[in-house]
Amino acid sequence: MVGRYEISNENWAQITDIVSPTQVMGRPRRDDRQVLNGIFWVLCSGAKWRDLPERYGPWSTAYERFRKWRDDGTFEAILSRLQLRLREDGLMDLDTWMIDSTSIRATRAAAGGGKKGAEEPVDHALGRSRGGLTTKIHLVCDSHGWPLAFTLSPGQQADSRHFISTLESVYLPGRVGRPRKRSRYVVADKGYDSDELRRYCDRHGIKPVIAQRQMHRKTRPGLPRRFDQHRYRQRNAVERCFGWLKELRRFATRYEKLASSFRAMVCVACIERCLRANFSYKA
Question: Among 6, 50, 81, 239, which residue's beta carbon has the most beta carbons within 10 A?
C-alpha cells in the first residue's frame, strides 16, 4: 500500500532509470525510491530535514541525495519526462500558455548564504521589501494548469523584466521533431503590458493576450489589436496552479539559503503536481 507523500509503483516505473540507474560497483546505496519519498515528505510537510521520519532512512542521506540530484539535473530530467508523458497522452495544451508570478516569503534563516557555485546569483534571488525577505517565482503553465517552466528573481523586481527569460526557458521535447518552445497564444495580466514584450511576441509568431494598463499613451502604428476576452478568461489556470503548488509548504515558504536549492525544491513541487495526472498517486 502506497503511503501519503509516496510515489506509486506506476509512476516509479516511469522515472526509475533517471533516479536509480544500475549500480555496477561499490557499496550498495540506500534505496532511491525511499529517499525520493522522504524528499516529497519534506516538501509537503515543510519540516526540517532533521525531522525526517525513520522510515525514509537517515535524514543526512536524504539531504545529500537532494543536493546531488539538485546539482546533476536529475529533478529537471524527471520533470521533462513527466511533461513528455502529459504531451503524448494529449493532456497538455500546446496552443495557449499563461505566465504570472507569485511572491514567496522567506524566513530569516534563508538570509546569509555564501556564494556557492558559478551559476548562483549574488543576491540568491532574495529581495528585501516592506514585508521582509521575499523571492518571486515566475511561472509558465498551459491552460490545464500543468507547469512548463519557471524562473526565480528577488521579490522587489517587476514581473515584466522576467517575461522573456521565463518564456525562453520552456523546453518540451517530443519523441520526434524539435522540442516545443513556443505557443500560439500567451496570456498575461496588465503587469506585462509593454511595447517591448509585444514586439518580442510578434518576432516569434506569438499572439499576446495581455490586458492594457489604464494610462495615456500614444496610439500604436498599424491596425489596432483585438483583445481576446474569451481567451483572457482562461488566465485563472495559472492562478489555480499557484494555489495547488502553495499547498506544499516548502513551496509556500522559502527556507533554503541558496537559490539553487530553492529552485530544486520548486522543481520537486512541479514534479508532484505533474504526478497528479495519474490517479494512482495519492496526495
Answer: 6
Residue 145 Rama label (left phi>0; alpha psi -120 to 50; beta): left
Number of residues that make up the chain: 283
Q: What is the pLDDT of residues 1-17, one digit of tens each?
A: 566 778 989 999 999 99
Q: Mind listing the pLDDT tens digit for each residue in 105-163? A: 999 888 877 767 667 788 899 998 777 899 999 999 999 999 999 999 999 999 999 99
0.85 surpassed by pTM = yes
> Given a cut of 60, is residue 278 above it in pLDDT?
no
3-state secondary structure the chain: CCCCCCCCHHHHHHHHHHHCCCCCCCCCCCCHHHHHHHHHHHHHHCCCHHHCCHHHCCHHHHHHHHHHHHHHCHHHHHHHHHHHHHHHCCCCCCCEEEEEEEEEEECHHHCCCCCCCCCCCCCCCCEEECCEEEEEEEEEEECCCCEEEEEEEECCCCHHHHHHHHHHCCCECCCCCCCECCCCEEEECHHHCCHHHHHHHHHCCCEEEECCCCCCCCCCCCCCCCCCHHHHHHHHHHHHHHHHHCCCHHHHEECCCCHHHHHHHHHHHHHHHHHCCCCCCCC
Distances (CA, A) of 254 to 111, 157, 238: 10, 17, 20
- Does the pLDDT value for residue 227 go beyond 90? no
